[in-house]
Amino acid sequence: MALLPLLLNPAAARTDALAVHGTPALPPGFSHWPHVRPDAPRGCTLRMAQAGTFDTLNPFTLRGRFVMGVWSWVYETLLLPAPDEVLVGYANLAEAVVLDEATRTLRFTLRAGARWHDGQPVTAEDVVFSFATLGRHGRPFHRALLEHLDSVAEDARTIRITLPPGDARRLALQIGGAHILPRHIWQGRDFGALTLEHPIGSGPYRVVEVEAGQRVAFARNADWWGDRTPAGRGRHNMDRIELRYFRDRIAVFEALAAGRVDWMVENDARRWATGYDLPAVREGRLIRHTQRHGHITGMNGFAFNLRRDRFADARVREALALMMDFEWANAALFQGASERAGSFFLNSDLAATEAPDAAERALMDEVRGLFPPEAWHSPWQPPVSDGTGRDRALLERALALLEEAGWVPRAADGRLAHRETGELFHLSVLAQSNAQQALVGVWFRGLRRLGLAPRFEVLDAPSFTARLRANDFDLAYRFTIPPEWPGPEQRALWGSAGANNTTGFARPEMDLLLDRLEAAPDRAGLVTAARVLDRALQWQWLVVPGRYDPVRRLAVSARFAPPPRQPRFGYGDDAWWCREAE
Prior knowledge:
By secondary structure, this protein is an alpha+beta fold. The protein is 27% helix and 19% strand. The chain is built from 17 helices and 25 strands. The chain has a 5-stranded mixed β-sheet with strand order 19-18-20-14-21. The chain has a 4-stranded mixed β-sheet with strand order 2-11-10-9. Helix 13 links the parallel strand 18 and strand 19. The longest helix has 17 residues.
């Protein structure tokens, strides 16, 4: 998401950059992003591989299957995110921005030299048109942000926006991240129609060739205005990028092995470990890069529906989570390459991974009902098995917890049933793809040892969403990624009246904790509140944590060279260059 400055005192503050908290790290007039090679040579064709197909070159509506490269290479935003800083952004299409928080007025000033691919200037009217069009016809996040936005063009290069209710700074940053469309191209057309017409944008590349469903070729715009900006220098160095589509991931790999493509992101850890004994790799023509990133990762796992009585007891939830033998699954199925999700703010300083400090304990004292006694001196950790696939200690612990909660195996057949009512314990897991099936299979093997007969239900996206909205599920696979500065969206997830509260967990103490999170006055206060929230969610066993892949695996031709270093937030893909162009 792109960002830029809020200026409480326009005369004194810089207008080319914004740090939501603190100050931008790069000085005014900086020459280039720190991770790029500013004098990188330009040239060559990069052939990238993608599984699947496409039927539209309009990436802004929900209709059809769009080409991701159009989004990132053809169109531009007013503001660009800093690749190494949290919630900091720098000028892009807009050369300046001013936010008056008192009047909730936001102004963008466009660069004088910004041009569309057809040579026409990017104007304030284009921006106003884009906000209105995406607000009515764009993707859900566009509509939520822009639908009620009041924007006008004060002159050819200045846009004035009156911000709706909400955090003015956050809104300014989000608005700056919206892609800008050419009014003279889109006005009067059906924005939702599928189209393979070459799009006109203001970005570094333009579409030059299309083979429906199979290939899209992008050529670098030699007159791109962004080459002269600090954020553009050293980036977008390929003369041509060809995005080639293949039937499936196997076909993509075969094309890579045969030398028909230069670039492929490998999602299969097993193949990465065992399938790359190829002549191209042995001879150094194909290089394998393993890259971590600095983005906050969040939690993925299987969320309980506490509205169903059998999951309302935290002891039951813990018992079921104990039977997820991640250690065996990771070694046997995932080549030891996965890591266990253990925090709702994973991969950030907000994650509660150590024992609480004094500030955290003080806040925990205000919401004591959310924690067991051991939480004050120990961090929560997901269960760790002995890796054998039949950990007896975890099984006994799970059975003991279930018995405490009133659930015991029946003498007749070993099925888990309620001691007093005789009700059988039913359990099903809802998902919208088979991606988690291998891990679910391992977990179900453990659940059967408890006397359960679990079911895995895979639904299409609309049916999955309908079931969640109707609260018609036992557990559902969910992936939640928080922002770097969490706030109101956490109340939607975990508050008593939260619109997206999948689990149905509702406690006054949690609402109070969310109040503290939203009211955090600075980063230190936010870290304390977020870590306590993380601990509360962990100790309540609301989710059976799943697995995540901590790295990106990239196989790429040795003809291409990476930037001098990887940026903190991302991989720096747009700063690669071609060695042959040296």
